[in-house]
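Hi Q.,

Before the meeting this afternoon, I wanted you to have the guanosine-5'-diphosphate prediction in hand. No need to reply - just skim if you have a minute. The sequence and ligand are here:
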Amino acid sequence: MKLFEHEAKKIFRDNGIPVPNGVVIDSINFPTENLTYPVVVKSQVLVGGRGKAGGIRFASNEDECRQVVRDLLGMEIKGEVVNTLLIEEKLDIETELYISVIVDRNSRKHLVMASTEGGVDIEEVAEKNPEKIVKYHINPLEGFYPYMALEVARGMGLHGKIATKVAGVIYKLYQVYRKYDCEIAEINPLVITENGEVLAADAKVIVDDDAMFRHPEFSSIVRREGTALEQEAKELDLNYVDLDGSIAVLGNGAGLVLTLVDLITLYGGKPANFLDTGGGVREETVLSAMKILSKKCKSPEVKVMLINLDLAISSAAVASEGIVKGLSMYPIDVPIFARVIGNEAEKARETLKNAGIQVYEDIVELINSAIEEATQYEHISG
Ligand code: GDP
Ligand code: MN
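Predicted structure with the ligand bound:
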């Protein structure tokens, strides 16, 4: 889960990393008594590069600030609507540094990266001036110690008090990264102000979704990601992705469904979605899938539904009965083409045929029939 800048900065503050004073607002009627001008008004969206996209603005008094807030709220940045703003005291920046901690899968270690070329795209620095990036691997069994953080800061070419302060932030950033099971913890820019203060002006934290169970502190954060149907499917524990084609797809196993989606595309069709019921196919899962697909099939672009089940352990007969039951609960008006192989497949095929579903033996035949059905409509509608 990716955190918003203001959420990540709260974690930083709680863990001793200096951040600018600020307030989080979501309405144009915001209190101004706690603000000292000039301020920076920052759009809270989960995409990067907000500065370049016009999502970071400055204001030197209350009137300007109100105007900027009106401009930014509701604005779209790379497809994301700005609903929340972070207003902070504007820093007098002397230098912008870059620091991050990530998982380096190749070396099977944690990796600290640091550079004096902060503020800009670090990918750009990596390409043009790779020597400007200090890389420091951390053996997770050994851990990371303050003297190591100081080595990183010195490696960046920093000296004296500044080196000590930056090393302190690098050390704490690693602590945050470990404590919250992060995939990445990044500060870009880490700012040195004209007064020699060191503060995190930006914050990027992604927490490993598989570690959520041991972080009750995040349970109150509700992320609404994806389309309405994707969100509903997620609540039903289905792996579902909306696509914009005409052939709705239901299958079991992520690899199998991906292959199906690829094959449909290869033969000239357009999948309307990705839906993987997951491993053990039970009646409950099939019913959930049918609920989602019944909604998907109501959209006018969807012309046909394709089912491909390959069950080694779960019973195809049970799955097929689930499909038929699902049809009675969540009607689907487009034609349905299916292919079933594996455990109790013969029985499953009978069940599907009796419910008026076209059953195919061969996967290419199944796909081509579905494509023909879908494109036939295209011709009629012109
Ligand atoms: P990003 O574009 O999404 O990475 O957003 P950042 O928070 O990193 O802001 C982008 C740039 O805006 C920074 O690199 C700074 O140059 C500038 N910026 C952000 N906050 C301040 C601030 O408080 N004072 C000044 N002078 N510049 C700022
Ligand atoms: Mn940034």
